[in-house]
């Protein structure tokens, strides 16, 4: 069987499906977002995203963090200050989570 056709081990497949798995380096994340590493560092300083660190101390970002960073970039590009953009995103995220929990509670009753 061709190695490319062999099924992935479950543990590895879980990482591909995990939105919180820190799969992206700072350089790759900045490239994907069309921004600079400095912008990503500023999001860390603003406490919007806290990337995990590799064994060598390099920042590693998850898909979830990249979505937050993309939203921050969108707001900043619209002229909203970085601190305000981060606060908006945090509130949007909290609202989405509250709505999800509310929907779950309704289903349970």
From TrEMBL:
Domain of life where this protein originates: Bacteria
Domain HTH merR-type: 23-91
Keyword field: DNA-binding
Any matching Pfam family: MerR_1
InterPro entries: DNA-bd_dom_put_sf, MerR-type_HTH_dom, MerR_fam
Residue ranges that the Swiss-Prot or TrEMBL entry lists as coiled coil: none
Keyword DNA-binding: yes
GO molecular function: DNA binding; DNA-binding transcription factor activity
Record's protein name: MerR family transcriptional regulator
Origin species: Actinoallomurus iriomotensis
């Amino acid at each position: 069987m061709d190695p490319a056709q062999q099924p992935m081990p479950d543990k590895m497949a879980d990482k591909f499906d995990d939105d919180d798995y820190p799969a992206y380096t700072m350089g790759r994340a900045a490239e994907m977002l069309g921004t600079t590493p400095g912008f990503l560092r500023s999001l860390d300083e603003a406490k919007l995203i806290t990337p995990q660190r590799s064994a060598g101390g390099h920042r590693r970002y998850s898909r979830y963090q990249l979505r937050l960073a993309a939203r921050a970039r969108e707001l900043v590009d619209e002229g909203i200050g970085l601190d305000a953009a981060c606060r908006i995103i945090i509130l949007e995220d909290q609202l989405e989570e509250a709505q999800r929990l509310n929907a779950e509670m309704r289903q349970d009753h």
